[in-house]
Amino acid sequence: IDKYAQRDLKKGLHLYGTDGNIGLTNAWSIIQTDFRCCGVSNYTDWFEVYNTTRVPDSCCLEFSENCGLHSPGTWWKAPCYETVKIWLQENLLAVGIFGLCTAMVQVQYSINFQILINCNQISNHRSRYTL
């Protein structure tokens, strides 16, 4: 599973910074900045994306405009896949509880919405026959 996930993430790197992919671009920028990592397996993953020796500025130890053009000594070395995977494993309980709570809220909203629609239909049905 790890191999396939990493392969798909590397394919997704090619969408970074492209039109219509602002969410993916922002997600990679946030992950690399917050987790202090670069690329899926390492920073060289970006070399294939850019077809040159460079990385996004979010890979830089100290952020500045075009810092991704400098030498590898100024970039995060940790692989994002492993770093995020370890974080998820360490925080699995919290992530699970958050996911469960989110699902419960969505189900409750769906139930409330269905009740509201049904009440509205009953009200409309009654008003038709009371005139």
From TrEMBL:
<keyword id="KW-0812">Transmembrane</keyword>
<keyword id="KW-0325">Glycoprotein</keyword>
<dbReference type="GO" id="GO:0005886">
    <property type="term" value="C:plasma membrane"/>
</dbReference>
<comment type="similarity">
    <text>Belongs to the tetraspanin (TM4SF) family.</text>
</comment>
<dbReference type="InterPro" id="IPR008952">
    <property type="entry name" value="Tetraspanin_EC2_sf"/>
</dbReference>
<dbReference type="InterPro" id="IPR018499">
    <property type="entry name" value="Tetraspanin/Peripherin"/>
</dbReference>
<keyword id="KW-0472">Membrane</keyword>
<dbReference type="Pfam" id="PF00335">
    <property type="entry name" value="Tetraspanin"/>
</dbReference>
<protein>
    <recommendedName>
        <fullName>Tetraspanin-4</fullName>
    </recommendedName>
</protein>
<keyword id="KW-1133">Transmembrane helix</keyword>
